[in-house]
Structures are given as C-alpha cells and as structure tokens.
Design brief:
The structure holds two protein chains of two kinds. Chain A is an all-alpha fold. Chain A folds into two domains: about 290 residues, ABC transporter involved in vitamin B12 uptake, BtuC (Orthogonal Bundle), CATH 1.10.3470.10; about 60 residues, Arc Repressor Mutant, subunit A (Orthogonal Bundle). In chain A, about 75% of the residues lie in helices and about 5% in strands. Chain A contains 19 helices and three strands. Chain A has a three-stranded antiparallel β-sheet. Chain A is elongated and about 100 Å long. Chain B is mainly α. Chain B has one domain: ABC transporter involved in vitamin B12 uptake, BtuC (Orthogonal Bundle). In chain B, about 75% of the residues lie in helices and about 0% in strands. The two termini of chain B are about 35 Å apart. The C terminus of chain B is likely disordered. Classes of the chains: A mainly alpha, B mainly alpha. The interface between A and B is large, with 49 and 50 residues.
C-alpha cells in the first residue's frame, strides 16, 4: 500500500497519526530520563499502569455497554492514578523501608502488573465482552484508534514538545547540574514536577498503541539512537523525537501490511514499533559518525596504518635506500602501507631498492625531528634517563601535532642535537 | 473422579486439603497440582532471589524475566515440546542472550548500564512476542506464556518445577558459603580465590532456569515478584542470610490458591 494512504485513508489515518504522536511524546521524555540515568523508572510506570487501566474498564462496565466508546478515557484515568500510586509505592519502599532503588522498582512493577492480570481474569468472569479492551493494552493495538484518540495524543505530544521548547534553558541547566540550577534561581521543583507529570502522561497514553510491557522500549531506544549522533542537548531532543516518530510510523505500517498480506497473522503494534526502534538504535550504535563502533574501529585502523607508513618512511630515511626484502623483514604487514606511500608520491622504486622522493624526505625528516625533540624533552625537562626515552618517543612521534612541535622547539631553545648526539633535522616547509 | 474441592469455600478448602493429606487418599487432583507447582516455583524463586538482590542484579533479573520469553519460544520452535532438557536449553539460551548482549552493549558500544539493559530486554521481548504471534498456530504456546495459566497445569509440570526447586535447594545448600562470601565481600572472595564472575554467572543461570521453569504457572513477568518479594519481606524479620533463607520457605508456604498466583507471598501474610 502506498505510504501516503496511511495519512489520507480514513481508517488507517487515525492509527498512523496516533502512533506517531504518542511515540514522539514518549521518546522526548525518554531522552530526559536517559540523561538523568533513570530509564528503568519508565519500565515501572508502564507496568504499574495496567491494574488501574483494568479497573477503569471494570468500573465503566458496571454502567452498561453503551459507554464502550468512552473506555479509553476510563483507561487513561485509571492508568494515570495507578502508575502514580506505583511511583509513590516505590518512593515509600526506598525512603521509609531503606530498600535500594533497583529491587524496589522490580518489586513494585511485578506486584502491580500481577495485580493487573488478576483483575483482568476477574473481569473475564464478570464482563467478558470488555476483556478484549483490556487484553489489547498488554501488547498494544493501534488499529482501533479513532480521531478522538488522535486529538488527545496530539495535544500530549504538543505539550511535551512545547515544554521542551519553551523550558529548554531551565531544563538544560537542570539536567546537567541540579545544584547550579538551584543556585541561579531556577525553580527546579516546578520543572521537575512538570517533567514528572508529562512523563507519566506520555507513558500512560502510549500503552494504548505500544502496550504496558513494551512501553519502556519506546522511551529507551530513540534516546540511545539520538545520543549517538550528537553531543548537543538540542540536537539529541530533536533527533530522539524524529526517531520516535519514525519507528511509530514504520512499526504501525509493518503491522498493518503483515495483517493485510497474511490473513491469519495478527502481530500487535507494540512489538513491531519497539523492534523498529531497537533496530534504529542498533544501526546508530554501529554506524553513527564519531561515536559509532564502525567508525571507531575504522579510525583505529587508519591510525595504525599511518603509524606503519611513518615507521617505513623513517626506516628508509635512516638508510637512504633499502632493499625490498629487508623492508619486509623489518616491517611486517607493511605492503599496503608501501603501496599507499608510492601512490602518494613519497616513495619510489628503483630496481630492487626503495627510495624516498624529495617530498618523502621532508616528511620523514619531520617525523624524525618529532622523535628526537621528544627524546630531548624527556631527558632535559623531565629528567628521564637517555637510555629509556626511545620507546616512549617511538609512540609520541605519531601523536605530536605541529603546535606541540612549535612549543617543544621553544622550550628546548631550538636544539640541534638529541640526547644520543644525533642531529635533529631542521624544520622545513612542506 | 469427582474433584473433592468443587464447590468448596475458601476456608473449607484447607479442611479438605488437610483431610486428604492426612489420609493420603486418591490421586492428586488438579487443585493440588496447582498448589504444589506454585509452591515449588515460589520456593525456587525465593531461594535464588536474595542473592540477586544482594549482588545488585535485580535489574538483570527484571531483564531475564522478559527475555526468558524468547528462550521459551525458541525452544518451542526447535523441539515443539516441553521437558527437562528443553527447559535447560531454554534457560541457557535466554541467559546467554541476555548476558552476552547486555555486556556487549556496555563494553563494545560503551552504553550506560541502564540503557543497555533496557534496550536488550525490550527488543528481545518484542522479538519473542512477534514469534509467538507468528507461530502460535503451529505450537502449543500462546501469549499465555506471559501471564501464566494455572488451570492448564498437569502432573508433568509438577515434576519439572519440583526438579527446579530441588536443583536450587541443593545448589544453594552445597555452595552456601561460597555464595555468601561472594555476595557480601567481593574483594575478600577474590583474595580467598573465589571467582566473582563465575559465581555471578552461576546465579544468573540459576535465575534463568527458575524463570523458564515457572513460566507455565505464573508467566515470565510475574516471576520477578517471586524473586524480589520474599527477600524484601524476610528482610523485615532478620538480617542474617541463613535465617533469611530459612524464613523464605515459611513465608511462601502460605497457601496460594485458585487463579491468583500473581499476588506475591507478601500479600498473603
């Protein structure tokens, strides 16, 4: 089906937009929790919402079947109350009972969730026709969302976004340094209270389309993905919202497509959305520039290659010319480095021998200069013994920058000889 | 045979149970099997739980209680059956997947701990649920694995959960000293030559076994209440680990009836 139809088709539009709005709100709040290192709270809140939601539906069922279209309101109110109670229970366990935060979180979430299942099985006996409402809350079911839901989710997403937009300064200060925020007169309590309620509401609203069990995944994954790309809080919030919306959209689309293609298979929306979100997180962990593992390994590889290249040039520089077999013996694994050096025009072949070009000689001289400057610095300024400085300099020569070289030259008063009485090559413009 | 418990009220239940226990009459009825399975699960969880909390691994237990769904689903897909061997494979699979992926995220991807635990268990659980809904028709597994279903318990389940409880009991009574030392004082346990990672791994695997072993009765998620609850309750009464471990059976031996396995023992005292 055409992707555009998911936004225009009257039946598909509500689930699509609902998922997008709800995931945006959740992932914004997830980013806040990520920086506070309290991601596990979301897990407890979402599980604790279940018994309240079930109880809400149960109370509504007492009034009769004509109120069925209002069941989402009952779910929303009940879930908010019970997840609030869940959080209160956790803080009671932590503060009054001196229980560490992790077991308290685990215990509260399991007890509340168990209570929810108990109530749900009670509901099965008293009001069987309402059970499907409650069961869909476990894994989420976006297909039955209506325009009214969108209005609520949209408002919520808007509230989260505008809170972060307009309260960005205080929020940023609070996230990085709470004490400092207090000292410059930011009312941290108000900001935290707002954050608390927005977090609660975004999770409670989300359980309709992602489900209580997997709701925390929707807060965690986009934040992880966004953090990989940037060091700036603004960008992280923006990217997190974007990734959240993207996984909401794609998860919903996939779930619908599978249901359309295979008649008997109904995959709940929640797992699909979370799976897409986790895949996004995994891909950004792997391939994000700077922080991604792939680029970190590539950078490491390039640095190793540069070290080998510089060592080879240094080796040739010391002997003027060198035989190929000799070079292979001295520097194993250097064939690719040699190939690159020839390509760059630092080195050329002369029969069996390998020589440096003029450029190569200048470059190799610069490296040797760094090596010997560092040796001299270690002996003169730091008082190291001259016999022990070689190994350290072997490593430093690849790391020292031109600015450091200039400073070293100044500190050592433009020296001519290194501690082993070898001449230090003079600096020449490349 | 007519179920002697049918139509019996809450308190009469115990009276009938006591009579039947005393006279040892007749084969086990389904109510008794449920009671026995739940007690075995609770005993197994209650024994390993304190070590999890003491070693600050309760978040890992939370993670494991979600990921064991994937282990169970994979085993059902591979063997299409359920028995002791499959239980072991399932536990091993879920423990390895959880621990391996979480440690990988922390070490290789340099992610903070709570984020990596959260990412791993939510995505593995999502995969588990998707697999269940894809293959629910072919195997005898449904989303009941998450919530548990006491009514479907059979004598075979009693045998399995009994084995798990017995395993935990023997393991903990055999290695009690070592577990005690490695839980309370890691530097000291290193200095006397106990490997901390090894015992962590053992506790982790036992937890996985317990989670996987009790999924038919209480479901994969609520196991967590049985893991942390008894410890937190028993701690109110004692601060010595062996007292505590002895208290736990007493706390969980309180009867747990009909379809309410979800309530932790704490609510029954």
């Amino acid at each position: 089906m055409n992707l555009l139809e998911y936004f225009t088709d009257p039946i598909l539009r509500a689930p699509t937009l609902g998922c997008i709005f709800m995931c945006t709100a959740a992932s914004l709040m997830g980013a806040v929790l990520f920086f506070q290192r309290r991601l596990m709270v979301s897990e407890s809140i979402s599980h604790a919402a279940y018994p309240g939601a079930v109880l809400g539906v149960f109370v509504l069922s007492l009034f009769g079947a004509q109120f069925e279209e209002y069941s989402f309101l009952a779910v929303l109110i009940g879930a908010t109350i019970s997840s609030y109670l869940g959080l209160k229970a956790i803080s009671y366990l932590e503060k009054r009972r001196k229980i560490k935060s992790d077991p308290a979180l685990c215990f509260a979430l399991a007890i509340f969730f168990g209570l929810g299942i108990l109530l749900a099985s009670g509901l099965q006996e008293t009001a069987p026709m309402w059970v499907s409402q409650v069961n869909s809350l476990l894994y989420g079911q976006a297909a039955t969302l209506t325009d009214l839901h969108i209005a609520i989710y949209g408002t919520l997403a808007l509230a989260c976004t505008s809170f972060i937009l307009f309260g960005f300064r205080p929020l940023q200060t609070l996230l990085f340094d709470r004490g400092f925020a207090q000292s410059i007169g930011i009312r941290t309590q108000i900001v935290e209270r707002c954050l608390f309620w927005l977090l609660l509401l975004s999770i409670v609203a989300g359980i309709r389309s992602v489900g209580v069990i997997l709701m925390s995944g929707m807060l965690i994954a986009p934040a992880i993905a966004a953090r990989q790309f940037s060091n700036s809080l603004k960008t992280v919030f923006f990217l997190s919202a974007f990734f959240g919306a993207f996984s909401g959209l794609l998860g919903n689309v996939l779930s619908v497509e599978i249901a359309l293609k295979y008649d008997q298979i109904h995959i709940p929306t929640g797992p699909m959305i979370v799976l897409v979100g986790s895949l996004v997180a995994l891909l950004s962990l792997l391939f994000a520039p700077k922080r991604g593992v792939f680029f970190r390994i590539a950078r490491l590889g390039l640095f190793r290659l540069r070290c080998i290249e510089e060592n080879v040039m240094k080796g040739i520089w010391k002997k003027e010319r060198i035989e190929r077999s000799e070079l292979k013996r001295l520097y194993p694994n250097s064939s690719f480095a040699l190939f690159r050096l020839i390509n760059q025009g630092f080195v050329f072949k002369e029969g069996k021998n390998i020589c440096l070009t003029e450029d190569g000689r200048i470059k190799a001289g610069a490296i040797v200069r760094l090596h010997r400057l560092w040796e001299l610095y270690l002996t003169e300024q730091l008082g190291c013994h001259a016999e022990r400085v070689h190994h350290c300099a072997e490593e430093m020569e690849h790391i020292l920058t031109p600015e450091l070289e200039e400073r070293l030259t100044k500190v050592l008063a433009d020296p001519k000889c290194d501690p082993h009485s070898q001449p230090i090559p003079q600096r020449r413009q490349l | 045979m007519i179920n002697p418990y049918s139509g019996v009220g809450f308190f009469e239940f115990f009276w009938v149970l006591a009579q039947r226990l005393f006279t040892l009459s007749g084969p086990l009825t389904s109510d008794e099997i449920q009671l026995a399975v739940l007690s075995c699960c609770a005993l197994a969880c209650g024994l390993i739980g304190p070590f999890l909390v003491l070693k600050r691994m309760s978040m890992f237990a939370n993670s494991l209680s979600h990921t064991s769904l994937l282990g169970i689903v994979l085993v059902f897909l591979l063997f299409s059956g359920w028995g002791l061997g499959m239980l072991l494979v399932g536990a091993l699979l879920s423990a390895l997947l959880t621990a391996g992926l979480t440690a990988g995220l922390i070490r290789v991807f340099r992610l903070q701990e709570d984020a990596s635990i959260g990412l791993v268990f939510t995505s593995l659980f999502a995969i588990g649920v998707i697999l269940v809904s894809l293959y629910a028709r072919d195997s005898h597994l449904s989303t009941e694995a998450v919530t548990g279903n006491c009514d479907a318990l059979r004598l075979e389940d009693l045998r399995l959960s009994g084995t798990v409880a017995l395993f935990n009991l023997t393991a903990i009574s055999l290695f009690y000293r070592k577990l005690l030392i490695s839980s309370f004082d890691e530097p000291f346990s290193r200095s006397v030559g106990l490997s901390v990672p090894f015992w962590r791994a053992m506790i982790f695997f036992t937890t996985a076994l317990t989670c996987v072993g009790s999924f038919r009765a209480v479901g994969v998620l609520v196991v967590l209440a049985l893991l942390t609850g008894p410890y937190l309750t028993a701690r109110l009464f004692s601060h010595r680990l062996h007292h505590l471990l002895l208290l736990i059976p007493r706390i969980i031996a309180h009867p747990r009836l009909d379809t309410s396995p979800e309530l932790s023992p704490k609510d029954r005292i």
